[in-house]
């Protein structure tokens, strides 16, 4: 379900405060400055919950938004953002000493823990953009390595670059037509596509280094785990043996990314369970059966883990997803 916000409906005297509050609740606290007076400013924002991601579509006149050290000190969530230009004027992003100017079908990453500046409509034209925001822990890449790629233009060149851009553009056009269950699954696919694109960029920069080989092994291991999430007997020893490495090496691979083997497996299993719970086609399937399908041998352990991750028990999440789907019709 999406929420539509139209700037035209806000009194001119209140627009500066409106933008301050809207950006803080939709993304993170930011300063917003139009090139002229707020009186002539027009814009439309559509925010959508998208699985573990937050997606916002914008049709806006030129504006500059900044995340300053002062604002970061007030609220410092660890989030990664994808900024996609869908049409209209070009946009600019600056972070970490880098600057990127994006044309339609191009995108860039940036994070909320460091100062940044985004200029929408650098050529003084209205623009259509889409942002996706999510915790970087959802990507199988270390936050430190991802930070090295923020404010870098990703063009829609042939191959993987074009595939990623077209996927995001089509997603932006169709996101409001997805049910909660579909959104959960498509968001997982979106994260996989983005992670693959980032990994390609990192591999190009680090090709042949020990770090690149280590990352390639980690990606292979995580792919193996994803394929065997439903096996309750999935253990570090079994994973290590399947890849001809020691258990110690396996744990070190995950530790270097700020992760644990057990924690990463549990989060992936919970994501799959959440998708099944939101799927109307599985409404008659017992919660315990869904838990067992994804490798949880104890329904009680699953319920506790799900509540710790999502803030409510599995049965309540299922009801809320059903209500959200009904209200979206």
UniProtKB/TrEMBL annotation:
The answer to whether UniProt assigns keyword Aminoacyl-tRNA synthetase to this entry is no
Looking at the record, the residues that make up the HTH araC/xylS-type domain are: 219-320
Highest taxon in the source lineage:
Bacteria
The residue stretches assigned to a coiled coil in this entry are none
Q: Per its record, what are the GO molecular function terms?
A: DNA-binding transcription factor activity; sequence-specific DNA binding
Keywords associated with the record: DNA-binding, Transcription, Transcription regulation
Question: Which InterPro entries is this protein grouped with?
Answer: AraC-bd_2, AraC_XylS_family_regulators, Homeodomain-like_sf, HTH_AraC, Tscrpt_reg_AraC-type_HTH
> Would you tell me the protein name for this molecule?
Helix-turn-helix domain-containing protein
